[in-house]
């Protein structure tokens, strides 16, 4: 954790400004994720598989703004001594929330990987609520196992009781072990899912281009239509000629000819209708493939943004803490430390706000607020 000696040289005005900015970050983090959670309550159409994982991410980031940052502000800025019990509680909660936020990002990436690689089975899994809840709970359990037991065991190793940081920070190997599971494994997983999605999109786009180039409309329809028009003309002209010449229409031979001509016309008409239906269904399948491809491209783009922001916010601190474990923390370490919490602030703006369903849900929330405010103002004016 952050060394409180970094803020000893600051004046009281600078400390108040820092505390205000940190409190503003905590409030914005809490508010942004609270809106995402409220969207699930207001809009029932959001309650499907992928959006439940967004909900799990919003819950972990919400408590970062409620518990982690507010408790840390007086400790780091005003040198408030938490005590051993409160320090251990805060460390476990903070590491649990931050790691669960990271693992939720991995879970969202895995879910999008499944929607592209196994689209048919993914649609079936949309209604499996028990499996969705099990995955959400598994994220929290794994996040606790990464740091929780190690924090409880290593708190007795601490020599400096004034700074609230884990006891295993004195060992580079333990820090490297936790950084491996907290940062490196998630980054590799999300990068793999992202690369696979882009590779699958490249294959599907090349396949759709080849299909649209070679098979827009079946060639049978044109020949059949031409043949049907010719046969129709032949049949009508032959019948008209027979009527004009006054041939015996009621003879047995003429009846057979008429019946053959009528059956031939019906068969050709059926062939032309079937060929037209095939061409329409073929064009519909092409448009459906294009829609699916466009949806997958949007998923891949948002996943690439997710990976980039996560790497920017977590890589500097995860790498620097290994080299600064047994050294005094420099001033620039504060920026790297707060970048991890800044990721919890950015998450509700990056992922849910990029989806139209969330945007509709947010508009419903704000419309409800406007309606309640207008009705309240009308009631006040009526009372006056």
UniProtKB/TrEMBL annotation:
Its predominant location is membrane
- Domain G-protein coupled receptors family 1 profile intervals: 32-351
Keywords for this protein: Cell membrane, G-protein coupled receptor, Membrane, Receptor, Transducer, Transmembrane, Transmembrane helix
Q: How does it sit in the membrane?
A: Multi-pass membrane protein
Residues passing through the membrane, by range = 20-41, 53-73, 88-108, 129-153, 173-199, 303-323, 335-354
Gene Ontology MF terms: G protein-coupled acetylcholine receptor activity; G protein-coupled serotonin receptor activity; histamine receptor activity
Q: Which Gene3D superfamilies match?
A: Rhodopsin 7-helix transmembrane proteins
Q: Which InterPro entries match?
A: GPCR_Rhodpsn, GPCR_Rhodpsn_7TM, Histamine_H4_rcpt
GO CC list? dendrite; plasma membrane; synapse
Set out the biological process GO terms recorded for this chain's protein: adenylate cyclase-inhibiting G protein-coupled acetylcholine receptor signaling pathway; G protein-coupled receptor signaling pathway, coupled to cyclic nucleotide second messenger; inflammatory response; positive regulation of cytosolic calcium ion concentration; regulation of MAPK cascade
Q: Which family does it belong to?
A: Belongs to the G-protein coupled receptor 1 family.
Which protein, by its recorded name, is this?
Histamine H4 receptor
Can you name the source organism?
A: Orycteropus afer afer
Gene for this chain: HRH4
């Amino acid at each position: 954790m952050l060394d409180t000696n970094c803020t000893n040289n600051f004046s009281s005005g600078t400390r108040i400004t820092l505390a205000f900015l940190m409190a503003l970050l905590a409030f914005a983090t809490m508010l942004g994720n609270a809106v995402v959670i409220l969207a699930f309550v207001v809009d029932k159409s959001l309650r499907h598989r992928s959006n439940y994982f967004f909900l799990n991410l919003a819950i972990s980031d919400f408590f970062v703004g409620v518990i982690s940052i507010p408790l840390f502000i007086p400790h780091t800025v005003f040198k408030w001594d938490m005590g051993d019990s409160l320090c251990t509680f805060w460390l476990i909660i903070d590491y649990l929330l931050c790691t669960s936020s990271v693992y939720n990002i991995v879970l969202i990436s895995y879910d999008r990987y499944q929607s592209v690689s196994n689209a048919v089975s993914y649609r079936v899994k949309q209604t499996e609520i028990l499996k969705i809840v099990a995955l959400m709970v598994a994220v929290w359990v794994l996040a606790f196992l990464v740091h929780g037991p190690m924090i409880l065991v290593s708190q007795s190793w601490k020599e400096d009781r004034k700074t609230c940081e884990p006891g295993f920070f004195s060992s580079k190997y333990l820090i490297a072990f936790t950084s491996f599971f907290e940062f490196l494994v998630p980054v590799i997983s999300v990068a793999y899912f992202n690369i696979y999605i882009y590779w699958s999109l490249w294959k599907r786009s090349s396949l759709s281009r080849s299909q649209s180039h070679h098979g827009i409309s079946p060639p049978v329809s044109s020949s059949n239509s031409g043949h049907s028009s010719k046969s129709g003309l032949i049949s009508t002209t032959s019948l008209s000629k027979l009527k004009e010449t006054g041939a015996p229409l009621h003879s047995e031979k003429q009846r057979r000819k008429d019946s053959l001509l009528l059956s031939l016309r019906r068969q050709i008409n059926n062939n032309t209708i079937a060929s037209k239906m095939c061409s329409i269904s073929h064009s519909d399948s092409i448009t459906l493939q294009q829609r699916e491809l466009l949806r997958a491209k949007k998923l891949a783009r948002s996943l690439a943004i997710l990976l980039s922001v996560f790497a920017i916010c977590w890589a500097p601190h995860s790498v620097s803490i290994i080299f600064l474990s047994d050294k005094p923390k420099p001033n620039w370490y504060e920026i790297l430390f707060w970048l991890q919490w800044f990721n919890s602030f950015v998450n509700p703006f990056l992922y849910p706000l990029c989806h139209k369903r969330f945007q509709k849900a947010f508009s419903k929330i704000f419309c409800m607020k406007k309606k309640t405010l207008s009705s309240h103002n009308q009631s006040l004016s009526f009372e006056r």
